[in-house]
UniProtKB/TrEMBL annotation, chains A, B:
It comes from Actinoallomurus spadix. This is Bifunctional protein FolD. It comes from the Bacteria. Homodimer. Its EC number is 1.5.1.5, 3.5.4.9. Pathway: One-carbon metabolism; tetrahydrofolate interconversion. Residues 10-125 form the Tetrahydrofolate dehydrogenase/cyclohydrolase catalytic domain. Residues 144-282 form the Tetrahydrofolate dehydrogenase/cyclohydrolase NAD(P)-binding domain. Keywords: Amino-acid biosynthesis, Histidine biosynthesis, Hydrolase, Methionine biosynthesis, Multifunctional enzyme, NADP, One-carbon metabolism, Oxidoreductase, Purine biosynthesis. NADP(+) binds at G170, R171, S172. It catalyses: (6R)-5,10-methylene-5,6,7,8-tetrahydrofolate + NADP(+) = (6R)-5,10-methenyltetrahydrofolate + NADPH; (6R)-5,10-methenyltetrahydrofolate + H2O = (6R)-10-formyltetrahydrofolate + H(+). InterPro entries: Aminoacid_DH-like_N_sf, NAD(P)-bd_dom_sf, THF_DH/CycHdrlase, THF_DH/CycHdrlase_cat_dom, THF_DH/CycHdrlase_CS, THF_DH/CycHdrlase_NAD-bd_dom.
Length: 292, 292
């Protein structure tokens, strides 16, 4: 007799679709009310094929939701000063409501300087220092999109955060650090683990909520998942493999995100939603209104 | 036969004195080089006796170190808009190099708006969103003074951070949250506990480095301190009592801060040092130079 149970899947595609549909309805309302559709500016330095694909996909998703996009493609030889100037111009342009600077901008670029040229009220990708700190303190502001998507997914599945031990594996500026701060603002007890953590397994085993954000295939062993844990796999490695060993983890978790189809779809949905919010505010509409 | 040992005390007074002496020497150098001493502006709303005393003490410590201070006292009836205007004026005033807005500004004031009026390059008390995020990512910037003092104290006592489990009890915007982020930037594994944490003792017992920042007398029991742990008590409660039960904790810890004389003196030392750094930069001097 085995005790194997199977976790419920935390599907991200359904919730993401609902967010996108609502954003599209609000984008249409903004266009009707003001004569101007929300507009996302995308900035890409160089022609890295993956980055070109990402930007194209994001723009296509915008168009489909009734969000205009404006692309600024810069040569790989662009300097930090030139990139800062280009982003600053978009920050000042009243026709642009959100700015997405595609990472990586290139090894010779001071990316932090470039991101900081994004005006906080247009930082719909949530990557400025201001946005990170605002969300860390539970203040209004734009979330880094993947962490924001994770928080929405947890809410969607009624996962209680208060007092529960959330373990975040990974501490990147766009994912691990902000999601930990958002979980803390949501009253979870939060532990950050990373490449220098001494005994990762012993900490992972304590996680009521586990967020894997390392970018290493099957890095988290299923046997280390606490029985009944909620497992959020934000990894997306070649071959559609996450950071968690899904097949063993699902026998212990209560809820687990699939890869793909879990966190991924939420990320782009949050980007669209935040772009629409930014546009509503900048165009003088009540961001809470518009969908009946 | 007992196994009781006694922790070494982490004295903050000696390291703080050295930081203040170095800051005073650099302030004198700045005055000689530019004809202008570093200047800290202090802003106080109302006449809360504790706040009046704090501000007076900070100004006295500045004067003693050769740092000029300028005080802006505002009536308790001051509105958020008036306070923001006053702080904005100081942010623009080239004669002011650092700005300290004394907390609390009053229940009717939007403190976040007021703090955000401090220009990042004058935020020597380290309380803006920009400063929090910069230190969270290990970037140059001003530390919130108590967390900055704690990090200096750990360095002073050669406490290894890499891979060690640091547990921060408390998550305030000026202490718990930033010190955890700084410990993470220093490669520690970091856990945040707080009032909603389910089983505090079991987490405290895992701490190689324990930072108590709750403001409740003897809240951390000595018996929960891991043998050999480094204990940083940032609490300062009536009767010179910290957040940790010192007498029992010292029998288990390897290093422990006394209260008073541990973290406290480091806080003001960091404020003075950051004011001098800010002045050096704004006056066009190399902030790394000036003390031979």
């Amino acid at each position: 007799m085995t005790q194997t149970s199977t976790a419920r899947l935390m599907d991200g595609t359904g919730p993401a679709r609902r967010i996108v549909e609502r954003s599209a309805a609000r984008a249409a309302w903004i266009s009707r009310e003001t004569g101007t559709p929300p507009c996302l500016a995308t900035v890409l330095v160089g022609d890295d094929p993956a980055s070109v694909t990402y930007v194209r996909m994001k723009r296509a998703r915008c168009e489909k939701a009734g969000i205009a996009s404006r692309h600024v493609g810069l040569p790989a030889t662009t300097t930090t000063a030139e990139l800062v100037d280009a982003v600053t111009a978009l920050s000042r342009d009243p026709g642009v409501h959100g700015i997405l600077l595609q990472h990586p901008a290139g090894p010779h670029i001071d990316e932090r300087a470039a991101f900081e040229a994004i005006a906080p009220h247009k930082d719909v990708d949530g990557l400025t220092l201001h946005s990170f700190a605002a969300k860390s303190f539970g203040l209004p502001g734009f979330a880094s999109c993947t962490p924001g998507g994770i928080m929405r997914l947890l809410a969607e599945y009624d996962v209680e955060l208060t007092g529960r031990h959330a373990v975040v594996v990974g501490r990147s500026a766009i994912l691990g650090r902000p999601v930990g701060m958002m979980l803390l603002a949501g009253d979870a007890t939060v532990t950050y683990c990373h490449s220098r953590t001494a005994d990762l397994a012993s900490i992972v085993r304590q996680a009521d909520i586990l967020v894997a954000a390392v970018g290493r295939p099957r890095f988290i062993r299923g046997e280390d998942v606490k029985p009944g844990a909620v497992v959020i796999d934000a990894g997306y490695n070649p071959g559609n493999v996450g950071d968690v060993d899904f097949e063993t983890a699902r026998t212990r978790a209560s809820l687990i995100t699939p890869v793909p189809g879990g966190v991924g779809p939420m990320t782009i949905a949050v980007l669209l939603e935040q772009t629409v919010d930014a546009a509503a505010r900048q165009l003088g509409l009540d961001p809470g209104a518009g969908v009946g």
